[in-house]
Amino acid sequence: MEITFVIGYGVPLEDFLFEAANGTRYLNYSFECPLADTVVEKLTVKVLLPEGSKNPSVVVPFLVEQRTERKYSYLDVVGRTVVVRKKANVGPDHKSPFQVYYQFNPIYMLAEPLMLTFVFFLFFMACVTYLHLDLSISKTKQT
Prior knowledge:
Blueprint: H1 13-16, E1 17-19, E2 25-31, E3 40-51, E4 54-59, E5 65-71, E6 80-90, E7 96-103, H2 111-132
Family: Belongs to the OST1 family.
Subcellular location: Endoplasmic reticulum membrane
Subunit structure: Component of the oligosaccharyltransferase (OST) complex.
């Protein structure tokens, strides 16, 4: 019997995300199925990196198929890099850590708040301008 399913989850960063001495960040996680003692015919592990991350590289102790994708979610400006690794016939023997190294400039964390601030500022300025405009067709005489 063949069963196909997708498991997606987030992990607490303080346990898996580290910074190297040269300023490069890396994620240290294990390449395995989250179900204990399971053999998987085709395992795909996707790591979604923060927006603005550059130069992703993966260190895996065995041969895997690797590629990168670009994912856009709400309010993304340049999109997020997704590192995809696939391996066939994964079992408990393949349970070993892998690392995803990437460079990240913290200024990209300000992109969404600044964009929202600018849009709200423009909206309020448009409201103030609209309220101060005199859109009447004829002028009224003052006595």
